[in-house]
Design goal:
This protein is mostly helical. The protein has one domain. The protein contains 15 helices and no strands.
Length: 374
């Protein structure tokens, strides 16, 4: 069982430390639970190596093309599965009501930690976790990442449970733009013309949406910046930890605060964990699985697919969140908001065109290099 888990998901394997992308970056965006800023060009897990995110070697000889095609198909299915699950997450939070954002996130932290402990036990990866905890730089970065993702989770859950799911989807739509901006401000990266155009259009979009909402869309901006900074911090960890080890450390850091929150809610009579029936109880307990499974799916996808492909798949999540908000929650969209979202989508189109153009140029350059080597 251990070997099959490692083969499928590439998790917690000391001998393959650098091939376990818990998240990836696709030149424009860090993924949910991601590990690196969007302006990076390699997977990094929330690290980077030369092969992370590329299709895994399929073998040699006549069976190689067929094996590669099978691996690519599996990667697509894992990737779509991860983003569909993330995109439908608002539905899960909706059925957890009347639980509030604090209770939902506190339970998510505690039960995620327990589920990660189970996975680590199954894969016999406690030494990997211990190594991460002993490394001060790794632990410090993951501790900071933990508080950033806590802000992200609280804001996202608050938005969904208070009838503002449209704005939460906006946060993940503009996240690529924020990540590119962070690349300039923090990493001093130089942007290509289309990237500059996308950032400029993004600023216009924020202005239009501020006008349409009558206030700064703080939920969307908090989500975008907290997740962008989370990715930047996780990039400093690089490939030294895999996805489950990373999530384990982050939830370990947050678990004491989450436990205190659960105790306070229970003492004040505000907790819904045991007061809303068995179904509600088990739904809250399942938050650990619901947090970890998409992350595992994404890691399995990132090991099999090119970064460009994952960069396109990542739009599944905010699109689904947006559709759920409109079609299921029946949230209002004024004409001004439609215009604002349209401007955001224009900016994302520019980023996508830049990403595809760069991927094509890199492919041509590699083929030319191979011809010269031959």
């Amino acid at each position: 069982m251990k070997e099959s888990l490692l083969t499928i998901f590439g998790i917690a394997c000391p001998a393959r430390w650098n091939t376990c992308p818990g998240a990836a970056v696709i030149d424009i965006v860090p993924m949910p639970e991601g590990n690196s800023p969007a302006t990076s060009t390699a997977a990094a897990s929330p690290g980077s190596n030369a092969t992370a995110g590329a299709p895994a070697p399929a073998g040699r000889g006549q069976g190689a093309p067929k094996a590669l095609a099978k691996d690519t198909t599996a990667g697509m299915l894992f990737g779509i599965g991860a983003y569909v699950l993330w995109g439908l997450l608002p539905l899960y939070f909706f059925i957890l009501m009347p639980a509030g954002a604090v209770e939902i996130v506190a339970n998510r932290v505690v039960w995620s930690l327990l589920f990660c402990a189970l996975l680590i036990t199954v894969t016999r990866a406690w030494r990997v976790l211990a190594a991460a905890l002993r490394d001060r730089r790794v632990f410090g970065s993951l501790a900071l990442a933990a508080f950033l993702i806590a802000i992200n989770w609280l804001t996202y859950t608050y938005g969904v449970t208070t009838g503002q799911a449209v704005e939460t989807s906006l946060g993940y739509f503009i996240n690529p733009l924020v990540s590119v901006l962070l690349g300039v401000l923090v990493l001093k990266e130089k942007l290509r013309p289309l990237q500059w155009s996308a950032v400029g259009v993004g600023f216009v979009a924020v202005g239009v949406l501020t006008y349409s909402y009558g206030k700064l869309p703080w939920i969307a901006l908090t989500l975008a910046f907290s997740f962008g900074l989370y990715g930047f911090v996780k990039n400093r960890v690089g490939s030294r930890v895999d996805a489950i080890t990373s999530l384990s450390v982050e939830t370990m850091v947050l678990a004491p605060l989450a436990a205190v929150a659960m105790v306070v809610l229970a003492a004040s009579g505000s907790s819904t964990l045991t007061s809303q029936g068995a179904g509600h109880f088990w739904l809250l307990l399942s938050s650990g699985v619901i947090t970890a499974v998409p992350l595992l799916f994404f890691g399995a996808s990132a090991r099999r697919l090119p970064m460009t492909t994952i960069g396109l798949l990542q739009y599944f999540a905010p699109v689904l969140q947006f559709l759920v908000a409109l079609l299921v929650f029946r949230e209002a969209m004024t004409a001004a908001r439609w215009i604002g979202f349209g401007v955001v989508w224009l900016a994302l189109l520019l980023l996508t065109l830049d990403m595809l153009g760069r991927a094509r140029r890199n492919s041509v350059a590699r083929k030319a290099a191979l011809r010269q080597a031959a």
